[in-house]
Specification:
The complex is a heterotrimer.
Chain A lengths: L1 H31 L6 H18 L2 H28 L3 H23 L15 E5 L2 E4 H23 L1 H11 L1 H6 L4 H24 L8 H16 L4 H20 L4 H7 L11 H4 L3 H4 L3 H12 L11
Chain B lengths: L1 H22 L3 H26 L8 H19 L9 H20 L4 H21 L1 H4 L5 E2 L16 H22 L3 H17 L5 H27 L1 E2 L6 H14 L6 H19 L3 H15 L3 H14 L7 H32 L7 E2 L2 E2 L6 H36 L1
Antiparallel strand pairs in B: 1-2, 3-4
Chain C lengths: L6 E10 L2 E11 L4 E5 L6 H8 L7 E6 L2 E2 L5 H6 L2 E3 L12 H10 L16 H14 L14 H13 L5 E5 L7 H14 L4 E5 L3 H7 L2 E6 L2 E6 L1 H6 L1 H6 L3 H6 L1
Parallel strand pairs in C: 3-8, 3-9, 6-7, 7-8
Antiparallel strand pairs in C: 1-2, 1-4, 4-5, 9-10
The chains are: A mainly alpha, B mainly alpha, C alpha/beta.
The complex binds adenosine-5'-triphosphate and magnesium ion (MG).
The site of magnesium ion has 3 residues of chain C, from helix 1.
């Protein structure tokens, strides 16, 4: 029971982190139609910039400054890159971000090296907050959850209460109409793109030290964030939230289960040992299968509804 | 007249393919030629979706990989005594590809554009992870291997020598390219263009656009699987790396550099990128960075790829007006070269510096010029070259562009 | 058997969220009839076409074609039953040539299906049909131009062409002459008259000259309802129509 609670907590923290990435991406995809391949690269950049700032100054400065730096970079990319490519169509935009992801990945390795950097949880938060069934629960995880929830509230308030939010929501459902109403759409695009990048950067700041900051972190998370966005339905924030939490929980649970698939199926009354042709499959322990889980889930959900959990548009 | 202009490129291609291994006879060149041929088939199959059908498939390497694995298992069976001649293995690969795409297409073909691209990526991730989890079937990280000369000999050939393997691969590559070309001129091929341009309208002309997409996806998977069979013959090993996102990124780069707008574009891209990989991969670590830069530069300034550039100039060359463009193009060249050299200088120095920090001996050289990244000079020179080069390009490019517009506009009107 | 009307709309309703676009639309179009649908902007005419051709699901009511219920069918199944349409907002295959556009348009009914084992050029009747259509549309000189690069009027002509090239028995045209010059309009009307001979035609049109010239019967749609339906003479004299049509069009009606 305690074990379950622990897994649930970790899953929630991870799910909220996914949401910080997927909310920005789903806005960018939904509004601008740009499949931003570099989104997770901005997440990685956030972690590295935060690492440098926190060694020069401290974590709290990094927490504020690093997302701003990443967001500013995002604004530049949108203004001088994406906008110029826009006239060549969606495919060109996508390829642009593809190239950008490669460049960011390489430049990070040039600056910070090919191996993980020692980006650590700040000492002031490095203590066990409470313990569940004998296992100490780190305070930093709770801090991550707090930051995520705070950002969630800010994002919600921005979308629901501000003029910008109104335009963004209108643009999600009727992209062609917003320009006709006389809004400065390019500027809104820049702000959304920069905002999405800043959110990704913030996710990097708070996750880079909890997990690990290395050059592979973008690739590992990027595909999952894509899966979340598609699963939630392109352009749907609430869909992204649900999908993030589902994937966060399911993945954490499956990592926690060190059990063969055949054993697990046996527990629920399915005895498959006889089917030897698939013995490779039955021998997989569930925690090793964890990486596939988000994508299998994606495929299943799309097979049921090609628009995802909450999507109103299919493209 | 029309038939000549259609068949002539094919005749030239056949002659080139037959002659090439005798002109470039070394083992290295023959393996390079094989790689090009395989990449060309793969890129053409990819462009069936991207260029012809408007479908961006981020998981296309899956079909090459699964076709390759199937062919490899059959090759093993042949080694164990089954009567399966090596030249037939590409058919096995194609079968694997089409079956896999038939299943994958059920999931992806209902979506379009951005959603399609993202779903193909998710599907590919799932399959790559599965492949790694089933070591008995796919050999885990090491992959599976076999001996291509272990099959039954045909007319005394066992296809063990590189040249014999080359002819098998070349034959299938030409056949596949020919079939894919013919496909573009069938009703289904034309429908895929229509779905790319305006999927909704296709629905009001009696066709289910999702179904068109599904069929085209299967054909594309078939030829990707065939390329996988060729790869099995060439490398005698297939690993999960052949399935993964790097392989999918490479084919995207090839197709895009060659140009998605023409049938032959991907072939050009496959040849160019394979050459670059071979040539640069051995002398520089910065290959990934250059890849990214090439992407961005091409997307910004040459979205039609190499074949797009050729298409824009072919009529001018034919009418003899291209000569008038040369002077204005030449004015761009110095700036371009300077910026290129500067960028190379910056990146090479950066990589060099990194390996020095990692423990390599200090110093270094670029193009034979001594360049020690731990001193200021190489950095300043590279930076200056880049800055001046970019400035020059920015000054001269508009005029070159205007010159092209003027002359090309003149011939069109 | 022949008693069933070509097209029967029975209490068709369409809501977009809280917006009621069509409220209880009843229209009967007899086989072989040329039926015009008129009404002010935003009356729901295009939406009605979308309902008939399966572009959006209906919110209520039934639609039948020659007595057969087509309410919940997909656009391509409805096409296969002989209903083709044009769009108010030009919708072509922009990167394909004019000829290829027309060939795609005729493919289904010339038996090309999804064939991948035969070359397109091998379908003689298909090519002939596309060439004939080029001629009829006056686009022969533009045969190999990508549709996206055509002049606006030529694109509109091609839009009509896509609707009629397949030889459908019921043709729906949504403002075919919008944006055309006087001369082009005359040409288009002559073409429409010619190709709708012996077929059922439903046409949305703002040009009252065209409507009264072409239509056997007229339905007037206003605010999602049919406020009048009948022969041109009936509709001309209807007081409800007059009040819906204050302004420029009213003069044509008098
Ligand atoms: N997808 C949609 N969502 C919400 N409202 C819609 C949608 N499509 C149409 N409408 C509304 O339905 C009403 C009818 O639109 P429709 O296009 O059918 O009118 P119309 O009679 O064809 O007008 P016009 O003469 O301008 O073409 C309009 O008020 C329009 O704003
Ligand atoms: Mg309308």
């Amino acid at each position: 029971m305690d074990q379950l609670l622990l897994i649930l907590l970790n899953g929630l923290v991870y799910g909220l982190l996914l949401f910080m990435l997927s909310s920005g991406l789903t806005l960018i995809v939904g509004m601008m139609g740009v499949l931003n391949f570099a989104h997770a690269s901005f997440y990685m950049l956030g972690a590295y910039v935060a690492f440098s700032i926190s060694t020069l100054m401290n974590f709290w400065v990094a927490l504020i400054v690093a997302p701003l730096v990443v967001g500013a970079l995002g604004a530049l990319v949108e203004q001088y890159g994406l906008r110029a490519v826009h006239k060549h169509g969606h495919l060109a935009e996508l390829l642009f971000t593809f190239g950008l992801a490669m460049i960011i990945g390489e430049v990070i390795q040039l600056i910070w090296g090919r191996w993980p950097v020692a980006y650590r949880v700040p000492e002031s938060l490095d203590f066990p907050l409470f313990s569940i069934g004998g296992t100490a629960y780190p305070a930093y995880r709770m801090f991550m959850m707090g930051v995520s929830l705070f950002m969630f509230v800010v994002l919600y308030a921005t979308l629901a209460r501000t003029r910008l939010g109104l335009v963004v929501r209108a643009a999600l459902t009727h992209p062609d109409m917003v320009a006709m109403l006389g809004h400065n759409v390019p500027r809104v695009f820049t702000m959304v793109f920069a905002g999405g990048c800043a959110l990704a950067g913030l996710a990097g700041v708070i996750a880079g030290n909890a997990y690990q900051t290395d050059p592979g972190m973008a690739l590992a998370l990027g595909a999952i964030v894509f899966a979340v966005v598609v699963m939630g339905g392109l352009g749907s924030i609430s869909g992204a939230l649900i999908a993030s939490l589902i994937i966060g929980l399911v993945q954490t649970v499956s990592i926690g289960l060190d059990m063969k698939l055949s054993t697990a199926l046996g527990r629920i009354g399915l005895h498959v040992d006889g089917i030897t042709a698939l013995s490779d499959v039955w021998d997989i322990s569930i925690n090793r299968a964890a990486p596939v889980v988000p994508f299998l889930l994606l495929v299943i959900i799309l097979a049921i509804n090609p628009r995802g959990l909450a999507g109103s548009r299919s493209s | 007249m029309r038939t000549i202009s259609h068949t002539l490129p094919w005749v030239i291609a056949v002659v080139l393919v037959l002659v090439a291994p005798h002109v470039f006879g070394s083992g290295f060149s023959i393996s390079l030629l094989c790689r090009m041929a395989i990449a060309a088939v793969f890129a053409l199959s990819f462009n069936m979706l991207m260029g012809q059908g408007g479908m961006m498939d981020f998981g296309h390497a899956v079909y090459l990989g699964l076709g390759g694995f199937l062919a490899m298992h059959v090759m093993r069976a042949a080694d164990a005594g089954w009567w399966i001649p090596t030249p037939a293995l590409p058919i096995v690969g194609a079968f694997g590809g089409v079956v896999a795409a038939g299943l994958g297409g059920l999931v992806v073909s209902r979506s379009t554009r951005t959603a399609f691209a993202m779903i193909t990526m998710g599907l590919a991730e799932a399959i790559v992870a599965l492949v790694l989890m089933l070591p008995r079937l796919f050999g885990g990280e090491e992959g599976i291997n076999a001996d291509r000369s272990g099959g039954p000999p045909i007319f005394g050939f066992d296809f063990g020598s590189p040249l014999e393997a080359y002819y098998v691969i070349a034959f299938w590559a030409l056949a596949a390219a020919g079939l894919m070309f013919l496909f573009t001129r069938t009703p289904l091929g034309r429908l895929s263009n229509a779905v790319r341009d305006n999927a909704e309208r296709v629905g009001f002309l009696g066709y289910n656009p999702g179904r068109v997409r599904y069929f085209v996806y299967m054909f594309s998977g078939l030829f990707a699987g065939l390329a996988g069979g060729l790869q099995a013959i060439n490398d005698e090993i297939i690993t999960s790396a052949n399935i993964g996102s790097n392989a999918a990124g490479a084919v995207l780069l090839m197709t895009f550099i060659g140009g998605v707008g023409t049938f032959a574009g991907p072939v050009v891209g496959a040849v160019v990128v394979t050459l670059m990989q071979m040539a640069l991969g051995t002398v520089t670590e910065a290959w990934q960075l250059y890849n990214g830069l090439i992407f961005i530069v091409m997307v910004l300034w040459a979205p039609g790829g190499i074949s797009g550039i050729i298409l824009a100039h072919a009529p001018l060359v034919r009418s003899g007006q291209a000569r008038r463009l040369v002077p204005s193009y030449l004015t761009v060249l110095p700036g371009f070269v300077a910026a290129l050299l500067g960028t190379i200088g910056l990146s090479e120095n950066a990589y060099r510096l990194q390996s020095i920090r990692g423990g390599s001996p200090p110093g270094g050289s670029i193009f034979g010029i001594p360049s020690d990244p731990q001193t200021m000079t190489p950095w300043l020179v590279s930076l200056a070259l880049t800055a001046v080069g970019l400035w020059l390009v920015a000054r001269t490019a508009p005029r070159a562009r205007a010159a092209w517009l003027e002359i090309a506009g003149g011939t069109q009107a | 058997m022949s008693a069933a009307p070509a097209l029967l709309l029975d209490g068709v309703v369409k809501n977009f969220g809280l917006v009621h676009v069509l409220r209880d639309v009843n229209i009967t179009v007899a086989a072989g009839e040329r039926h015009a649908i008129i009404g002010p902007n935003g009356a729901g005419k295009s939406t009605l076409f979308h309902m008939i051709t399966g572009r959006f699901p209906v919110s209520g009511g039934r639609i039948s074609l020659h007595g057969r219920d087509i309410t919940d069918m997909s656009s391509y199944d409805i096409y296969r039953l002989g209903v083709a349409r044009s769009f108010q907002v030009t919708s072509l295959f922009n990167r394909l040539s004019v000829f290829e556009n027309l060939r795609v348009g005729a493919m289904r009914n010339k038996g090309a299906g999804h064939a991948w084992w035969r070359l397109l050029d091998g379908y003689g009747p298909l090519r002939e049909r596309a060439e004939e259509m080029l001629e009829m549309l006056g686009l022969t000189a533009r045969r190999n131009v990508p549709a996206g690069l055509l002049a606006y009027a030529d694109q509109r002509a091609l839009e009509i062409g896509l609707a009629i090239v397949g030889g459908a028995t019921t043709i729906l045209l949504d403002e075919p002459t919008a944006g055309m010059s006087r001369h082009e309009t005359e040409r288009a009307v002559a073409l429409i008259r010619r190709v709708s001979e012996g077929r059922t035609l439903v046409i949305v049109e703002h040009d009252m000259g065209v409507v009264f010239d072409l239509a056997d019967r007229i339905s007037v749609l206003d605010n999602g309802r049919v406020i009048a339906s009948g022969t041109p003479a009936d509709v001309r004299g209807d007081p409800a129509v007059r009040s819906a049509y204050l302004g420029a069009a009213a003069e044509v009606l008098t």
